[in-house]
Design goal:
Length: about 325
């Protein structure tokens, strides 16, 4: 049992015997499939216990990526104790407040956290990268096509019950994957959105970074700007991009940025469909119309607009 492994690691770390009561409080966070609990023991500040399986290929990268990011001075939780062969780690408790929790607050209150997050992503983009372990495969044409297939299979077919064969065969999607996959590669978080940015001491702290790999920096930027959970207004999107421009002294090229946003939104919609069908977690259902609207916006006037139109029309009115 995952909790047994976390409890065992806790007793080893604290040097306590089985008579000492340790409380494990489940934390529901995202859709990574890992077991995450808050650990409380007498006389100690709480910390987080994480257990993962080999079901997802990126899970074993959690420890080495965390250590690399920490060495790069990025804000990630500190690892207190680990038992790699049991796939369990005890890490710093950053609290429960994430960027999503500020969704309904004025942008001025969110601005410092976006600035903090973007300052760190700028540093990551130009880091040399770890030398002592292999990252996940980089974003190339094949991976972008995999994300598109994920969208076709789990959203278009699995959730909406539509035929996706014409989309699979459409050259517009292959061309998009080819263009994005031919680009220079920077380190990217890969899931840079509001649930994965915790708020502590006035800064944004990263979690769920085990999928880090090389890819286009615009993919992470688009993930943050066109985050369906936040559903930013046009003004807020512009404000985030202005922060980025202030930090990097550059602005993403408009066409590439929109294409990365389209690719990311297809991936997100595929994930929502997969989670709804396999886990029945209806919290994700509310974000499908939002993501569909955003995908329609970023593909308007492009070659993707026409083939996506029937899918987005149905997804925009999705009700579980």
């Amino acid at each position: 049992m995952p909790t047994d492994s976390i409890l065992y690691a806790t007793r080893q770390y604290l040097g306590i015997d089985p008579t000492v009561i340790v409380t494990l409080i489940p934390i529901k966070r995202g859709a990574s499939g890992r077991t995450i609990v808050r650990v409380k023991a007498p006389g100690r500040d709480p910390f987080i216990g994480v257990h993962w399986t080999d079901e997802r290929p990126d899970s074993d990268n959690f420890l080495p990526v965390a250590k690399f990011l920490k060495s790069t001075k990025l804000r990630v939780p500190e690892i207190f104790y680990e038992i790699p062969h049991r796939r369990v780690a005890l890490v710093e408790d950053l609290g429960d407040s994430d960027l999503l929790s500020l969704k309904d607050r004025p942008f001025a209150e969110r601005e410092p956290y976006y600035r903090s997050a973007l300052q760190q992503i700028d540093k990551l983009f130009y880091s040399k990268g770890p030398k002592d372990f292999e990252l996940m495969p980089p974003f190339d044409e094949a991976l972008y096509r995999w994300e598109q297939e994920y969208f076709f299979e789990h959203l278009v077919e699995g959730l909406l019950g539509m035929d996706a064969d014409s989309l699979r065969e459409a050259p517009e999607f292959r061309d998009l994957a080819r263009r994005l996959g031919a680009s220079a590669k920077h380190l990217v978080h890969r899931d840079f959105q509001s649930q994965n940015l915790l708020l502590k001491d006035g800064d944004a702290w990263w979690i769920d970074f085990q999928g880090m790999r090389r890819g286009r920096q615009e993919y992470d930027l688009a993930s943050l700007v066109f985050d369906p959970y936040m559903d930013h207004s046009a003004d807020d999107r512009e404000a985030i991009l202005s922060i980025w421009e202030d930090i990097s002294e550059d602005r993403p090229e408009a066409t590439i940025f929109r294409e990365c946003a389209a690719q990311r939104l297809m991936q997100a919609l595929g994930a929502y469909g997969n989670i709804l069908k396999k886990r029945g977690d209806e919290w994700y259902a509310q974000h499908i119309p939002v993501a569909a609207r955003l995908l329609g916006e970023v593909t308007a006037g492009t070659a993707l607009e026409k083939p996506l139109a029937p899918v987005l029309a149905k997804a925009s009115g999705f009700v579980p």
